[in-house]
Amino acid sequence: MHLILIGAPGSGKGTQARRLVETYGLVHISTGDMLREAVRSGSDLGVLVHTYISQGHLVPDTHVTSLVEERLDRGDLANGFVIDGYPRTVRQIHEFDRIMKSRQRTLNAVLRIDVLDDIVIARLSDRRIDPVTKRIYNLNLEGDHPAPDVEARIVQRDDDRPEIIKQRLSTYHAETYPVIEFYRETGQMIEVNGARAPSLVFAAIQKRLASLEQ
Ligand code: AP5
To answer: Cys staple from 105: which of 42, 49, 100, 114, with CB 3.0 to 4.6 Å?
Structure first.
């Protein structure tokens, strides 16, 4: 199965991707994670990428597309993948289509997690990440507290500051919303309400994926 996961910053893409990986054995491909990895590596690309991410702007299409293309050529995708954070612009839709076709892969569905801006602003302010396992936590979510050893190492993302969150949301509405409209037109879009507990969001996703298989 090949899925795209799309939604506003903080809508719960990473959270649901983890569940999709556990339940369906998919590989999680996150362009955000790949770009942050490039930043950590200190490469020339990483230095450039940092200037965009830290301001809440999109990294230029060509850089992100090259990373996706390389990633799809690794030999670990036999069970399929869920790609989170790509395509994010209309140009990336066409690049992704080209990449998939040239590798004889077919997109099964585009999963959109729909959440209002006010909710995501609150969620992102409370988000923390375990840099070792990449597990995402929310300090304000009941039952989502890390064990004491993990709590000592969890970190906040650089771009989860209020002014940058606002910019990311505005970028999302201007550049990524047209991607949602595109996939609605193709009939490949599955939209779920993300303003519920993560387990309920996932149950809705599973139900919709099951109906795809029939
Ligand atoms: P990226 O890493 O993709 O960030 P994003 O899209 O802004 O999304 P987030 O990772 O912030 O949120 P999420 O939806 O995964 O939510 P999460 O599950 O963590 O991209 C970062 C940057 O990289 C971009 O700004 C851009 O610069 C660049 N970039 C990436 N891809 C690019 C591309 N294709 N082209 C160009 N540039 C690109 O959840 C958030 C919080 O809410 C957590 O604390 C979580 O515990 C909590 N939570 C989750 N679900 C629920 C729920 N149902 N109820 C309550 N709390 C919940």
So the answer is: 100
Residue 29 has phi, psi (to 5 degrees) of -110, 115
Count the domains in the chain.
1
Q: Kindly report the CATH number assigned to the domain that includes residue 16.
A: 3.40.50.300
Residues 29 and 21: their CA atoms lie apart, in Å, by 10
Residue 122 falls inside a structural domain: no
Torsion sign, CA atoms 143, 14, 115, 191: negative
pTM value > 0.85: yes
Place of tokens 């109906």: 211
Question: Pocket of ligand 1, candidates 30, 127, 166, 180: which has the most ligand atoms within 8 Å of its Cβ, to mutate?
Answer: 127
* Separation CA 200–CA 189 (nearest Å): 19
193 phi, psi to nearest 5 deg: -75, 115
Which residues partner with 81 through β-bridges? 2, 27
Active site residue 127: yes
Q: Ligand 1 in contact with 71 (CB < 6 A)?
A: no
State residue 188 phi and psi, 5-degree precision.
-95, 0
Domain, as residue range, for 83: 2-115+176-212
Position 61 in a domain? yes
What's the pLDDT tens digit per position in 172-206? 999 999 999 999 999 999 999 999 999 999 999 99
Rounded CA-CA distance 86/72 in Å is 13
Note whether residue 64 is domain-resident.
yes
Q: Which atom number of ligand 1 is nearest to the Cα of residue 15?
A: 18
Inside any domain, residue 105: yes
